[in-house]
Specification:
Blueprint (H helix, E strand, L loop, with lengths): L8 E9 L9 E6 L8 E7 L12 E4 L1 E7 L21 H12 L4 H18 L1 E9 L7 H12 L5 E8 L9 H14 L7 E4 L7 H18 L2 E6 L14 H10 L2 H4 L5 E5 L8 H13 L4 E5 L1 H7 L20 H8 L2 E4 L16 H11 L5 H10 L2 H6 L24 E4 L33 H6 L7 E5 L2 E2 L12 E3 L2
Parallel strand pairs: 1-4, 5-6, 6-7, 7-8, 8-9, 9-10, 10-11, 11-12
Antiparallel strand pairs: 1-2, 1-16, 2-3, 4-13, 13-14, 14-15
Helix pairs in contact: 2-3, 5-6, 11-12
Organism: Aspergillus keveii
Protein name: Zinc metallopeptidase
Length: 497
C-alpha cells in the first residue's frame, strides 16, 4: 500500500542544504501550492534566524532521488515462490532472457501488483519520488504488465510520479512472433494517452540480424514522433571487440534522429540510450565523434549507465581455449561523459531481484556509492555529481523537469521553483550505541555528552557511505511520508491548516 502522507507542508525550518559553502548554516524552506494544486513547489529558501531551531543536529535537505530506468514488472521475481524453479544456474545473459520469458508466461495482474508494490515501497522509503518504469508488451504477456503498471501509477500517484514505458523487450522485426509483438505495442501506444504511457521503449539488439535491429530503431523513432512520446532504447549491450561485432547501433540511432528531424518535429521529447556497454571500448576518436554528432545537431539524447546489471551481465566473451575467464567488465563511463564531453548522462538501478540482476537494492544512493569505485570518482565534486545523476539530473533526463544550468551544476542544491520533492537526512543512531548516555561505559575522565553517533554533514559523506533508510524523511510533492522520524512539528515542519 502507498505510504500515509501528512497534510501539505508550509515550511521546513532549520535545515542544512547540500552544496552550500558553509555546511553549518541553516535555512527555512517555504512551499506553496499554485492554484490549489496538490503538488507543492519551493517558493523561498531563506536563512534561518535560529529562533525556531527544533533540532540540535539539523537535517541535511537534498533534492529527492529518481529512478531514470527501472523494470517494474520484473522486480523481485527471485523473492516469489511461484518462480523458485527459475533461479539462475549459469548466470548468463541468455539464461536470463529464457528464464524471464518462462516467468512472464506465469505473470498475472495480482502478482504484478504485489511485486510492483514491493519495488515502490522500497524505492519511496529510500527517497525516490519519480521513476521511469518499464512494463513489457508482447505476445506472452499481451497488455497485462501495462495494465498493472497503470493501476500502480494511479494508486501511488501521491507518493511517486511513475512515468510508464511501453516496452518491447522481445523482437518486433524478426522471429515468428515479431509481427504480433509489434502490433501489440502499436495498439497500446495508440490506446493510451501520453499522460498515461509517456514513453516508447525497444531493445534493438535482440533482433535476429543487424538489418532487423536497424528497422526496429527506425520504426520506434517514427512511432514515438507520431504519437508524442519520449523514446528509450536498450542499446549496444555487449563487450565484443570491434573485429567481431558490427558497428555500434548508436550511430544508426543518431543518424535516424537527424534524418527524421526529431529536434524540429518532436518539441520537448527526449531520447534515452540505456546500457551502451559497447561504448566503453571507444577510443578518443569514438567519444569525440559521438559528442560532436549530438552537439552539432542539438539532439536531446541522454545516456543512462546501469552498473549493477552491466557489471553482472556485460562481460567479454569466454576464451575459446577453455581457460579461466578473466571477466573484464564494462559500463558506460558516466562522469567522463559529463565532465569531458558535456553529454547528458545519469545512473539507474535497472533491475532488482531477477535473473538479469540478482544482486543490489532499489536504493539509488547505493548506486551512487558504487559509482565512486567504478569510476574512481573520489573527490567531493565527484560525489556531488554522482548524487545529481540519481536525483535532479535523472529527473531532467526523463523529461520531468528542465535541465539545470549551468551544465557544470552537480544538481545537489534545492532551488526555488523546484517541485517540493525533498529528502531530509537526520543524524539518527541506528547502531544502538549512542542513544543515551551510559556513565558505566565511560572511561575515566570522559565527560557526559562527549560520545555521540557519527553524522553525515555533506553530500559527499552521504554518497561515500549512504545512511540507512531509518535516517531519511521524505517529502513527496509537499507532503511528508509518515514514519518513525516524524512526530508532529518536532522536526521543524509547519503544516497548512
Amino acid at each position: 500500500m502507498p505510504p500515509k502522507l501528512t497534510p501539505p507542508v508550509q515550511t521546513i525550518q532549520g535545515v542544512r542544504l547540500g552544496g552550500q559553502t558553509d555546511p553549518e548554516s541553516t535555512w527555512d524552506i517555504t512551499l506553496e501550492y499554485p492554484s490549489n494544486s496538490p503538488k507543492g513547489v519551493i517558493s523561498s529558501i531563506k536563512p534561518n534566524d535560529n529562533t525556531n531551531d527544533t533540532a540540535s543536529s539539523p537535517p541535511l535537505a537534498l533534492p529527492s532521488l529518481v529512478h531514470p530506468h527501472i523494470h517494474l514488472d520484473k522486480a523481485y521475481i527471485h523473492n516469489t515462490p511461484t518462480y523458485s524453479a527459475l533461479l539462475p544456474k549459469t548466470g548468463t545473459f541468455q539464461e536470463a532472457l529464457s528464464s524471464t520469458t518462462e516467468a512472464k508466461a506465469q505473470f498475472r495482474k495480482p502478482d504484478l501488483i504485489k511485486r510492483g508494490e514491493w519495488l515502490l515501497a522500497e524505492s519511496v522509503a529510500a527517497g525516490v519520488t519519480a521513476m521511469r518504469a518499464f512494463v513489457e508488451v508482447d505476445h506472452t504477456v499481451q497488455h497485462t504488465c501495462l495494465e498493472a503498471g497503470l493501476a500502480l501509477k494511479e494508486k501511488w500517484k501521491d507518493a511517486c510520479e511513475i512515468q510508464l514505458v511501453c516496452f518491447a523487450q522481445d523482437p518486433i522485426f524478426s522471429t515468428d512472433f515479431g509481427e504480433q509483438n509489434r502490433s501489440l505495442v502499436e495498439d497500446a501506444i495508440r490506446q493510451y494517452s501520453p499522460g498515461q504511457v509517456g514513453v516508447l521503449g525497444t531493445t534493438p539488439y535482440v533482433e535476429a540480424s543487424i538489418e532487423a535491429a536497424k528497422r526496429n530503431i527506425e520504426w520506434a523513432v517514427e512511432l514515438a514522433m507520431e504519437t508524442g512520446r519520449h523514446l528509450d532504447f536498450h542499446l549496444d549491450y555487449n563487450l565484443s571487440p570491434p573485429e567481431e561485432q558490427p558497428e555500434p547501433l548508436v550511430w544508426h540511432v543518431l543518424s535516424i534522429l537527424r534524418e527524421k528531424r526529431w529536434k524540429s518535429r518532436s518539441t520537448n521529447k527526449r531520447v534515452m540510450l540505456g546500457h551502451c556497454t559497447r561504448l566503453s571500448l571507444f577510443k578518443r576518436e569514438g567519444w569525440t565523434r559521438l559528442a560532436k554528432e549530438i552537439h552539432d545537431n542539438d539532439l536531446p539524447v541522454s545516456f543512462v549507465g546501469l552498473p549493477t546489471s552491466d557489471l553482472y551481465m556485460a562481460a567479454a566473451p569466454s576464451p575459446s581455449d577453455g581457460a579461466i575467464k578473466i571477466n573484464p567488465r564494462g559500463t558506460v563511463p558516466i562522469p567522463g561523459l559529463i565532465n569531458k564531453y558535456a553529454l547528458d548522462a545519469v545512473l539507474g538501478v535497472n533491475n532488482v531481484g531477477n535473473a538479469f540482476t540478482p544482486w543490489g537494492s532499489a536504493d539509488p544512493l547505493s548506486l551512487a556509492c558504487l559509482g565512486v569505485g567504478i569510476y574512481q570518482a573520489g573527490t567531493v565534486a565527484d560525489a556531488e555529481l554522482l548524487y545529481g545523476c540519481v536525483s535532479t539530473r535523472a529527473r531532467a533526463a526523463i523529461g520531468l523537469s528542465e535541465p539545470r544550468t549551468p551544465w557544470s551544476d552537480p544538481g545537489v542544491r534545492l532551488r526555488c521553483g523546484d517541485c517540493a520533492d525533498i529528502i531530509l537526512l537526520y543524524d539518527v543512531d541506528d547502531t544502538g550505541c549512542f542513544g543515551q548516555s551510559n556513565s558505566e561505559s565511560k572511561s575515566e575522565g570522559e565527560s557526559e555528552g562527549q560520545s555521540e553517533a557519527r553524522s553525515r554533514r555533506s553530500v559527499a559523506e552521504v554518497v561515500w557511505d549512504p545512511p540507512s533508510k531509518a535516517t531519511r524523511t521524505i517529502v513527496c510533492r509537499g507532503r511528508v511520508k509518515k514514519g518513525a522520524l516524524l512526530t508532529g512539528s518536532d522536526w521543524g515542519f509547519r503544516f497548512a491548516e
